[in-house]
Amino acid sequence: MLPSPSAPSSIREAPSTVKQWHFHTYWFATRNERSGKEAQALREALVQQVASSPKSFIAVCDGVTDAQLPGLTHSPPPMNHGPVGPHLSGSFETWVPAESLAQVLAWFTLHRGSLSVLVHPLTRYELEDHTTHAMWLGKPWVIDLDCLREDLVTPPLQYPELGFGYSASNE
Predict the structure, then answer these.
(1) Which of 79, 54, 48 is nearest to 164 (CA)?
(2) What are the sequence ranges of the domains in the chain?
(3) pTM beyond cutoff 0.85
(4) Which of 55, 99, 128, 138 is the most buried (most CB within 10 A)?
(5) Which CATH superfamily is domain 20-161 in?
(6) Taking 60 as the threshold, does the pLDDT of residue 8 lie above it?
């Protein structure tokens, strides 16, 4: 099960809104070739979904480029074939702005197969985002909390060139 962080030293108000999310898809990188192939197929299907609906299905993962999502200039992180950060096995990250959360969550729910997916908000509270505020599709995996910070001061901005999430216009 996912470990819980220690209680914060002072009670703080939760963020008023979440504008960006991460989906981390896990597979057994070293002992299960089938699991890795399933993750690769899921990622490829996700890239195709983004390409077929770039205005209504916004998601950025390895393989998504400006060709699928016009305006994207930053390269997403590659598929991890081993431990990286708090993720202890093979994984790939998918960034999703709040504007597409419902569509992407539904897509992962229907297409993840036997893979587990950690879904967490991106706020300034990185440790809580990966524990208290996280949810799982499939069986939860243990993650390494030692590399996560309690307070980043500001929420992380990813792919600001797209104008979604924390980078969206407030008009």
Answers:
(1) 54
(2) 20-161
(3) yes
(4) 128
(5) DOPA-like domains (3.30.70.1240)
(6) no
